[in-house]
Amino acid sequence: MELYVERGFENTTVAEIAERAGLSERTFFRHFSDKREVLFSGSAGLAELLTERVAAAPKTAAPLDIVSAALQAAGAVIQERGEWSKQRQAVIDANPELRERELIKLASLASAVAEALRRRGVKGPSASLTAEAGIAAFKVAFERWVQQPTKRNLPRLVRESLDDLKAITAGH
Amino acid sequence: MELYVERGFENTTVAEIAERAGLSERTFFRHFSDKREVLFSGSAGLAELLTERVAAAPKTAAPLDIVSAALQAAGAVIQERGEWSKQRQAVIDANPELRERELIKLASLASAVAEALRRRGVKGPSASLTAEAGIAAFKVAFERWVQQPTKRNLPRLVRESLDDLKAITAGH
C-alpha cells in the first residue's frame, strides 16, 4: 500500500511489493491472484460479515433495518483499518481500472446481501432493491467519510445515510 | 450486435463488425473508440436525457419524483430499442469485462443525475443519495424487464421499482 501511494499503482511491480513486505513473489501469489487483489482481498470478508449479520437479525426486523445494521457493522470494520482504508481509496480513485474493480466488488456485496435477504423469505425484487439501495447509501456514506478531514465515525455516517434515504423517499 | 450474439464478444473482431455493417475499419473507429463502445455508445445520450429531464422538472417537485420521471423517460427510450437492448444485455452478461464497463456507465449516470440535482439546489449528500437510489431502482427494474419472457413495459417497471423503494424505506 505504501508503494502504491508513493509511486502510483501502475508504476509498482509485484516484485517490489513482495520485497517491501518481506515475501518471495511465490508467496505473494499464494495470497493474491494479482497486484490488484492486495486492494480487494478484504471484500470477501465483508461479504461474509454482511451475510452473517443479515441471517442473524431478529425475525420481526424490517429488511431495510436489517441491511442498515449489517452495513453499520461493515462500516465499523473499515473504520478500524482507518488510514489504510483512506490510502486504499486514494489509490483506487487515481486509476480507472481499479475504479471498475471497486464497482464490481460493491455490486457483488449487493448480490450477497440480496441473496441473504431471500434466504430470510424476502421476495425477489424487494430483496434486490433493499440490498441495492442499502449499498448505494453505504457508498455515499463512505465517500463522505473518505473526503472529510475530521474523523467522523463511519458506522454513524452509514446510519445517517440510510436515515436520509428514508427521508428522501418519504418526500421530505 | 448480431455477431456478438452468434460468436460471443471475445471471438468477434472489429474487421468482422465493420464488414457486416458495410463500413471500413477506419470509419468504424471514427464512430467507436473500440469494439466495446458499440455496446455503450448509447449511454452518453441517456446521461444527456436524464440531465435535461432533471433540469426541466417543475420547481416544486420532490427530488426523488424528479429522478423517477427522468428514469421512466430513459426507460421509454430503451424500451423502443426492444430486442436490441435485450441482446445487448445477453452479450454483456456473458463477459466479465463488459459487466465492469456496464457498472461504470451506470455509476456515471448516477453522477450525472446527482450533478443535475445539485444545480437545482439539492444539497450534496442528498443529491448523491437520491441519484444512487434512483439508479439502483432502475437497475432492478431493468433486470426484471430483461429476464421476463412476456413484454412488460419498462417505464412502468421503473415506476413500480421506485414505488417499491418508497414502501421498503417506509418499513412496509
Secondary structure: elements and pairs:
The structure is a homodimer of 172-residue chains.
Chain A: H1 2-7, H2 14-21, H3 25-31, H4 37-40, H5 42-56, H6 63-81, H7 83-93, H8 96-119, H9 124-147, H10 154-169
CATH secondary-structure class of the largest domain in chain A: Mainly Alpha
Residue stretches of chain A low in confidence (pLDDT < 50, at least 5 long) are: none
Q: Specify the CATH architecture of the largest domain in chain A.
A: Orthogonal Bundle
The DSSP helix count of chain A reads 10
The domain tally of chain A reads 2
Please explain how this structure is put together.
Two copies of one chain form a homodimer. Chain A is mainly α and 172 residues long. Chain A has two domains: 1-35, Arc Repressor Mutant, subunit A; 38-169, Tetracycline Repressor, domain 2, CATH 1.10.357.10. In chain A, 78% of the residues lie in helices and 0% in strands. In chain A, helix 5 runs parallel beside helix 8. Chain A is globular, with a radius of gyration of 18 Å. The model of chain A has no long low-confidence stretch (mean pLDDT 85). Chain A binds chain B through residues 62-65, 99-101, 103-104, 107, 125-126, 128-130, 132-133, 135-137, 139-140, 143-144, 161, 164-166, 168-171, and chain B through 62-65, 96, 99-101, 103-104, 107, 125-126, 128-130, 132-133, 135-137, 139-140, 143-144, 161, 164-166, 168-171.
